[in-house]
Amino acid sequence: MPQMAPLSWILLYIIFSLTLILFSSINFFNYNPSCFKDTSLKSISIKALNWKW
């Protein structure tokens, strides 16, 4: 297995870093929080626990 030159390691690091930043930004700006507004208050249930010590 031949060794890779240091410049190609740097190039790989830059490519993977840019793809990570690209996909993270796409996921961040495509996130739509409006679907959780209606169900957030309905799903919370408070149960009173009576402990008998």
TrEMBL record:
<dbReference type="GO" id="GO:0031966">
    <property type="term" value="C:mitochondrial membrane"/>
</dbReference>
<keyword id="KW-0812">Transmembrane</keyword>
<keyword id="KW-0496">Mitochondrion</keyword>
<dbReference type="GO" id="GO:0015078">
    <property type="term" value="F:proton transmembrane transporter activity"/>
</dbReference>
<keyword id="KW-0375">Hydrogen ion transport</keyword>
<keyword id="KW-0472">Membrane</keyword>
<comment type="similarity">
    <text>Belongs to the ATPase protein 8 family.</text>
</comment>
<keyword id="KW-0813">Transport</keyword>
<keyword id="KW-0138">CF(0)</keyword>
<keyword id="KW-0406">Ion transport</keyword>
<dbReference type="Pfam" id="PF00895">
    <property type="entry name" value="ATP-synt_8"/>
</dbReference>
<comment type="subunit">
    <text>F-type ATPases have 2 components, CF(1) - the catalytic core - and CF(0) - the membrane proton channel.</text>
</comment>
<keyword id="KW-1133">Transmembrane helix</keyword>
<dbReference type="GO" id="GO:0015986">
    <property type="term" value="P:proton motive force-driven ATP synthesis"/>
</dbReference>
<dbReference type="InterPro" id="IPR001421">
    <property type="entry name" value="ATP8_metazoa"/>
</dbReference>
<feature type="transmembrane region" description="Helical">
    <location>
        <begin position="6"/>
        <end position="29"/>
    </location>
</feature>
<dbReference type="GO" id="GO:0045259">
    <property type="term" value="C:proton-transporting ATP synthase complex"/>
</dbReference>
<protein>
    <recommendedName>
        <fullName>ATP synthase complex subunit 8</fullName>
    </recommendedName>
</protein>
